[in-house]
Amino acid sequence: MRPQRVDPGPDDRLYPPPRPRPGDLIAGLSVTLILIPQSLAYAELAGLPSYYGLFAAALPPIFAALAASSPYLQTGPVAMTALLSFGALSTLAEPGSPEYLGMAALLAMVVGLTRLLIGLGGAGVISYFMSQPVLIGFTSGAAILVVSSQIPTALGAATPEGKILYRAGWSLFHPGSWDIPSLVLALGVIVAVVVARRVHPLIPGVLIAVIAGLIVGNVMDFSGPQIGEVPTGFPPIGLGLPWSRLPDLFLPGVVIALVGFAEASAISRTFAVQDRSGWDADREFIGQGLANIASAISGSFPVGGSFSRSSINRSSGAKTRWSGAVTGVGVLIFLPFAGVLEPLPRSVLAGIVIAAVASLIRPDQIYRVFKYSPAQGAVSAATFALVLLLAPRIDQAVLLGVGMSTAVHLVRELGVRVESRFIDGTLRLSPGGVLFFGSQQILTEQFLFHLNGNPDAKVLEIDLDGVGRIDYTSAVVLKSLADDARIAGLSVRLMNVPRSARRIMNSVWLDEPPGMAGVRPLLRRRRRDD
User: Fold this and answer.
1) Which 3 state secondary structure label does DSSP give 305?
2) How many CB atoms lie within 10 A of CB 326?
3) Domains of the chain
4) Secondary structure element (H or E) that encloses residue 435, with its range
5) The pTM is what?
6) What does the pLDDT read at residue 356?
7) Kind and range of the H or E element at 468?
8) In sequence order, which ranges of 338-425 are alpha helices (DSSP H)?
9) What is the C-alpha separation between 373 and 431, in angstroms, rounded?
């Protein structure tokens, strides 16, 4: 069998669509049964009426299937993207208000266009740029916020206004405000979903919990809050978005486009490795971009790839990317009958979210990063803390985490060490690490320190065997230091130039004025040896 490409070129993004297989129909419909209740829960997490989740679950999976490279990736409302959306929007408008709803759709458009441009521009490699320490800290912190946001609903408690953690704490410490039937239902849902998942991934624990919740809401005199009115019919299609608010949503939209893609990227890569097949980050960016644009014109909110639903899709026998389209069509068919969900207790939705996200709270992963790299562990822990402190603006926490990760990398890159050895009038200086423009000051200071400390030196040997990389600036700095040593009366020898740096070193050092006799023959000799 001919192997698939791991990194298709730009002209390969639009492969002829594969033929749907019977397994795609069964898998797609199986995911539909899970997606419908999940979409309701994630819409509320994003600060929208629950039925908006159905809009985000209908067209986006269909549009994503047009370009997806993974046959298993299932697109729609997901917890982390919903929380990021809530953080970006809740400081700009009252959740659930008409202004809020309009900005949610505009945010989806920004996310969609950003991902689409990245994919069409062939810049899918950017999906690898988010450091693992930042992702680990963000995921655990965001999972805590997601669970905390659902605690008042699970308890059936009416809390005072405040941030997510405050409202969760208030509801926990005021048991008199609890609605016992809501609490029992939420706990039952969590147990049902967790047990079903452990027995077999294809057991629809979420569906079972929703059916039980509907029975309770219809038959019993349930005292807790319920979903209430759910409009039936297809989502309104249009581009009547509040474009004047674009400046407020541009940066959060870009952050959500990049951070939210991490889950879709991880799903596609994981399954590609397990199947020994290929995947294309550019195509996934395009597919996820189209999905969010579809969500925007449906008047809904940003969407992403779901690991749990993708796993169910794969286990149910999906063979091509059209299984995702089947899921979207299934939701569309259900929309005229969505009114049957009106009696569903809201605590059921809270239990679904908690069961789906609680396992992502992994402080042990932060400790593991600390164990192997204290600096990276500090970045992970700081990102975790910032997510909790800055909530709901967790997009700002992500940006600060990326900034800290970049700073740690630069500090490590700046850590140039220069070892010296002086024997019989010969001073050998051996720099190690990465020589780039940011390390030129440290490199110069250490060279001068060793030269001044060995006034009897007659020969200077610069040994580059321990250098990982040399950029143009560093090559010029090394040449300048050699020039200064020559003027001071030393003979200069350059040794063990890394193969990767020989071209740039030749271009800089072979243009020196007369007098660098010890350098020119060495470089030319090594060039002949190549």
Assistant:
1) strand
2) 23
3) 21-360 (no CATH), 415-529 (3.30.750.24)
4) strand 426-435
5) 0.78
6) 84
7) strand 467-470
8) 346-357, 363-372, 374-390, 394-414
9) 23
